[in-house]
Amino acid sequence: MELKLTKPIVFFDLETTGVNVGKDRIVEICLFKVNVNNSTEITTQRINPTIPIPPEATAIHHITDEDVKDCPTFADVAKNVINFLCGCDLAGYNSNKFDIPLLMEEFLRLDIEFDIKNRRFVDVQNIFHKMEQRTLSAAYKFYCNETLENAHQSEADTLATFEILKAQLDKYEGVEFKDNNENVIVPIINDIQALHDFSFNSNSIDMAGYIVYNNKKVEVFNFGKHKGKPVTEVFTKEPSYYDWMMKSEFPLYTKKVITAIKLKGFNQKV
Fold first, then answer.
1. Which end of the chain is more exposed for a tag (fewer CB within 10 A), N or C?
2. Are residues 74 and 183 in the same domain?
3. Range of the domain at 71
4. 119 and 217 fall within a common domain
């Protein structure tokens, strides 16, 4: 099933030096744009991460320091990436928790503002996990009945994700799904807003999931000793916790979020 689009959507995948959003770097990026008329554009770029690629990362994506030593850095390609993504929604596989936060980190390190407010995010993994509970290679086999060759190469993974979403639209069109509260919804329709609503965790404030809304729409911690506690309450009673977070390897966007919350709390007192 072809996508019904009101604006372009970019499927993308990152190969990286590791899985720590706060400190790891991109070593390869693939961007696959589907335009409103369903024409497509694709660009794949190796990136010099400027830090060593650990052997355990190379073992997964097979990209070595030697492979990228003469490649451009992210700073060299950031403008092109921003331009390619301009006016587009985003889609990927586990992209809401990993690829989007890490891409945002790379932009923030360069003091480039990457606006996410007017974008919708379709995470194909979330659709898959809600409906079938599998991994990417298994998803490709399950939905497309094909073996995913060259897994953990950004272009192969990106194109596989696009094909999986189209197959999901075919398979689940009109299928009812019950959420955790036994509310019946129809999750899979050929509409990017509906796919965003189904696959995006609207409770996550910082994308990486460290700060979330509780059921009262209050910002709370989603990790550590203060899990479930309001951020403003913790920062008021334990100011050093804010300082600790700012000095630790949390994503820059998470630090930006907690700073905004801290300032909001201060302004409310004033």
1. C
2. yes
3. 9-199
4. no
Q: Which helix (H) or strand (E) holds 105?
A: helix 100-109
Nearest to 15 by CA among 50, 43, 45, 51: 45
Locate 6 and state its tokens. Answer: 């009101």
**pLDDT value at residue 250:** 95
Q: With b meaning 16 or more CB within 10 Å and e meaning fewer, what string describes 229-255? A: bbbbebbeeeeebbeebeeeebbbbbb
* Statement to judge: residues 130 and 220 lie in one domain: no
> 138 φ, ψ to 5°?
-70, -35
Q: Are residues 191 and 264 in the same domain?
A: no
How far is the CA of 51 from the CAs of 26, 33, 58, 156, in angstroms? Answer: 10, 29, 13, 25
Model confidence over 140-199: pLDDT tens digits?
A: 999 999 999 998 999 999 999 999 999 999 998 878 776 655 565 656 789 999 899 888
